[in-house]
Write a structure and sequence with these properties.
By secondary structure, the chain is an all-alpha fold. It contains 3 helices and no strands. The longest helix has 23 residues.
């Protein structure tokens, strides 16, 4: 077993692990810049189409947010356990 403090272990400092990955490298920042410029010109060229679709996109966002936002609530994982109903406020009994 290799100790994390030995010089050849290739262990990284905890602050280096949480830097955000590839998007914060030089290539990632360049890619973000090109994507932003491309999105600006695309929306600028098709401004009328974008505004016409905006109400439908908002209506589509509602069920998608409902599906993705309820991911961590534990729905459908069986009956109650020791923590069943613990997410309710103090007023509900």
């Amino acid at each position: 077993m290799v100790d994390e403090t030995t010089p050849g272990s290739h262990a990284r400092h905890p602050a280096q692990r949480d830097r955000g990955g590839w998007w914060w490298t030089r290539g990632g920042l360049v890619a973000i810049g090109f994507l932003l410029i491309g999105a600006f010109y695309l929306l600028r060229e098709h401004y009328g189409h974008t505004l016409g679709a905006l109400p439908y996109l908002l209506l589509l966002a509602c069920p998608l947010m409902h599906l993705f936002m309820h991911h961590g609530h534990g729905h459908g994982h069986g009956g109650g356990g020791p923590h069943a109903g613990s997410d309710r406020g103090d007023g509900a009994k």
